Amino acid sequence: MLQGVRVLEFGQQVAGPLTGMLLADLGADVVRVERPRRARRRHPAWYTYNRNKRVVSLDLASEIGRAEAMRLLDGCDVVIDGLKRGDLARYAIDLEAAPARRPDLVYCEVTGFAPETGVSAHPWEGIVSAAAGLFLPNLPNARQRSPSFTSLPVASTFAGLLAANAIVAALVCRRRSGWGQRIEVPLHSALVYAFGFKLLRTNWTEDSVLPSRPRRPNPLVHAYQCSDGRWLQVHVSRPRFLRAFVEELGLQSWRDEGLIDRDRLVGGAAARAEAVSRLQDLFATQPAEYWEERLSRAGVSCAVCRSAAEWLRHPHALQSGLTVEVATDRGLLRQPGPLLDSHAPTERPLAPIRCDSRDVDWQPRRPPPRGPRPSAALEGVQVLDLGQVLAGPAAGRVLAEFGAQVIKVDPPGVAVNEAFWLDTNRGKRSVLLDLKAPAGRETFDKLVQDADVLLENFRLGVTERLGIDHETLKRLNPRLVYASVNCYGYAGPFAARPGWEQVAQAATGIQARNGGRGRRPRLARFAVLDYATGLAASLGALAALYKREATGRGRRVTTSLVASAGLLQASLIADAPTVRRREVEGPEAQGPSLLSRIYATADGWVYLHCPWLETSSLSEAPELRHLAGRLAACKRRADPDLEQALEEAFLGRPSSYWESALNRGRAAVVGLARSWDLLAQPRLRRARLIQTHHDPAWGKVEHVGIPHRLALTPAVSGARVPLPGADTRRVLLAHGVSARTYDRLRRGGAAQTARTASN
Questions:
Q1: Residues 565-597: tens digit of each pLDDT
Q2: How is the chain split into domains, by residue range?
Q3: What is the pLDDT of residues 2-57, one digit of tens each?
Q4: Number of helices (H) and strands (E), helices first, in the chain?
Q5: What sections of 258-389 are H helices per DSSP?
Q6: What DSSP string runs through 190-241?
Q7: What angle do CA 189, 193, 195 make, to 5 degrees?
Q8: Quick check: pTM over 0.90?
Q9: Are 235 and 221 in contact (CB under 8 A)?
């Protein structure tokens, strides 16, 4: 979809290369510039993050290397700068001045922290994660709870997804207007964005329509150990799934006792305990795969908690293209497949191609004619958002933030989860329309004829039953971009199975990684897959819009929760006979090594990250000078005595002392934050990462803001969150429905307004 787009990538670590990989997987010609001393590295993840790219080695400290870099710069459309801030400028490659010479250039800088945060520590993944609160529980008593390290590069993955979205939105804008622009995506901001509704806070007024409800554990959304010692994650959260669960397992007597009544289970501790006990006994009678197959056949959402290595070679992952095998100089390497499927044939090799920069025949780009300065990247784009729960609506919110006009379409009487609704529907208009009723379907067709994008995350086969599948709707509107999301993808034996965040985390190894191998699985603390998949769907829609500008035809793009799980774990799960895994996991994990881990201090915790070649910088702290020789001689080997000595040293001083003493050079220390505390940080409010809106219907709402900064067309967080159905009449009249027809729709129940919406 991005064929013809030239991308020049300067990057290291994960975020920059991942951004380039996403664009390359979509068809862009990506040339990655590596420094000669880095070109010999062969970490398995290198073959994933650099697939579909051409890799050139340039010494930017030399005059010849700089000249070649400038030649490539003159011929590209997009620059990804994933190096340390200021590195390129130090080599006289001044991209800050690029707009004057190349006003059509899209320049994306992936940084560590937004300047307003005031954090000066080197932005290693662990440092960013600690500063944003990833390692501490998001609970009121988190200060008294031990932190837990995760190897998942959540910050870098979300920064890459956000950067790719912003770049393609800027390309769509440039194709229409001729204007390029500068983009900045800080890793810390991207991680705060990933927390989503977990950082939502409301102060309800007396007139608030939807009161807040307490959230308590639900035994029907839980992991249970089976007879073979393995665990099964079940997710029975909707009435139709509950009916199937009861009928398949013959639990009618439990229903009569109130043990599977959702309201009773959520509200009463005794009922929850009894239900958990009985379900534990039930699932302990058979192996996990037996239950998975039986319940899935009955239409119940569940999954065996597998390891990531098992998932890489699972029949569904293999048959659906969710994992792929790539020939490399290390042999055949199995890795996660592309995040998006555009349902178009491609013959591009996945393996990275090393070449000389002189083999990259990029002629200088001639800037396109520029029109009026655009006010928004997606100005004039109309989106129909049929998404439910989180992933689908999150995609619609991203497009709304880029300036699209998004209409959220739900059925009359829709059940609203307040936190999800408030978080994902900012800046949208809400319509309640019954697509099962002939009159509702006919009215929906009018909306489709005017739309540019349709987003949906129904189970496989539902859109066909409703008559709103892509093949049907493209006959109404050949220019329609149709983006679909589900749990398991759209091919393979699991494709038709229902699924949720918890189930996808179980199937793909995330729960097993968090719990530790052979132990009770644990969920990630945030809905990382839902929000990542929302960003994936919006990226696919943007790329299809870009392609449509050239061809005039829309297309379908698809993604899934399990595809996002593969992306999130891409640096950890590449599989080959020569790969040796060295990963810490489980709730007691504190970090991958004694120089990159959590340490307790006199008043809390800090995260230390120091490259092994920079151990001398730790001598800045007098308390550590006596360990300098032992650290230099350690050479990455495990040394329990040395680690204990470091633990004792850190315990002797408060966190603020270590932050002041050790943030020198490439070594970094930062105090562990709790994500909920971010709401009270003035610096994050100045960075617009935490925003407050006052709404007449919802009251005061505090929520996550915008992490990606576009200089020309800034993304905007919509101030208004509509009540369900608040815009039904206005939207339908604007799309050709007469007032008389609207009244008939409303009286017949095919359309509904906010005043009669079920709350």
A1: 999 999 888 776 655 666 788 888 899 999 999
A2: 118-149+590-675
A3: 999 999 999 888 999 999 999 999 999 999 999 886 544 567 888 899 999 999 99
A4: 30, 26
A5: 262-267, 269-283, 288-297, 308-312, 315-320
A6: HHHHHHGGGG-EEE--TT-SS--------TTEEEEE-TTS-EEEEE--SHHH
A7: 125
A8: yes
A9: yes
